[in-house]
Amino acid sequence: MSDADKITAMTRMRKLADRMGAGAAVAIDAAAKSCATEHTTGTPLGDFLAKTEGRTPSQGLGVVKRALKISQNPKVRDAALSGQASPDHAAAIGEELRKLPRDRMGPDQVDRAAELFLDRASTTPPERLRKAAAQILEEVAPEAVPSPHDEAARIAAQRSRAIKNRRLVWGSDDDGSTWFSGQLPDLEAQQFIGTLQAFGEKGRRAERDEAQALRTQRDEGTINASEYLAARVELEHREARTTGQRMADALVDMVTEMASLDKIPSAGGQTPRLVVTLNYQDLHDALAGEIAAGVVHGALGEIPVDAGSLRRMCCEAGILPIVLGGESQVLDEGQERRLVTGVIRRALELRDGGCIFPGCTVSANLCQAHHIIPWWDEGPTSLDNLCLVCRHHHALVEPDRYHSRDQWRIVVDPDTKIPRVLPPERLKKHLLQSPSDPHQPGGSPADRTRADGLIRGENSAQSTLVA
Question: Where are the domains of the chain?
Fold first, then answer.
């Protein structure tokens, strides 16, 4: 192929891929509106996509929401299907159309707004279409535009949008760091930034005070010249921090100070804490610096921790050693209590690590304790009859009181005592089965038992540090 032919092939195939993507979005939206997967498999569409396509539940839900944006306006939908607009542009336009004051606009005005958005789509990136919304509204429905003289109404509308668009997300970069992304309404952002800057300035003052104290100690002979130089070099490293590094440190200082003042609320029945899992000998060797330490369990899953960091944690926080199933712990409340005690909750968090629903990434502190055999059906409040699930999946696995539904259910493996989530029988035909995959319906019970043991890291002799 010539270079020109390659460009032609690339352009046509990308256009075809966009049209296929738009077609898939329309099909997804149709399935969502008719509750097709709920009726046929007992599974919400977002979870169905996650299970059948190897996604997380949140990703599956995102696919459903995106399909709604692409399909909700006929003109935008047809433009995406014909290739006039990409799925990304169609989703952005659908989002902006949803924000228009449609209660003060007629159907023709909404369609005209969609046409104007589509005209701009050929020359405007999807994320910038939002800037055209005010101009388009003024052109198609000037009577719906807030009066220029009504400043209060304009500010209130802007504030409402800012509150609706607030968000904070994070994730791992798989290289030892966690990234954050988000936005806040201006008023809250101003307070947040001001607090960060105050902590940053506090750090600068501390550096100046420390420099002066070093000079005083040197002049008084409290420290010798070599000690002064060593301390000064260390201080210069902190003084050389960039503004971004100072603000990152200020955020950590804010959280640390809140924790020291007991200002952090409880989540899941306990205040947030770091949990490091290792056996006793590993603890001894790690604190002595002889081996790498253990694993921190938190919102991002398991994170390796070095010995130096572990020693600092031990100096700065209370340490409570726990052995799962130890005689000193009450892990079974029987039928006398329905609510989970703190000890059982801690054991659940260590065993399950978060929501046990396949693919779900909700961390343990945001999960609910679920009775596998319901409490109302004489199920005991014990570790063997409990598991952690998020709010969304709790509703999905909650047993039907009349046992009349083919639904998602949780069973406890008789050998490993680890809870597993089983799909409805009617969903299994939609799953790709592989005899070598113990988590697919085709895997043998022995394979599933071995896999669960590996994944959960079962070890009856395991002990933990709770910091």
Answer: 3-167, 184-260, 266-467
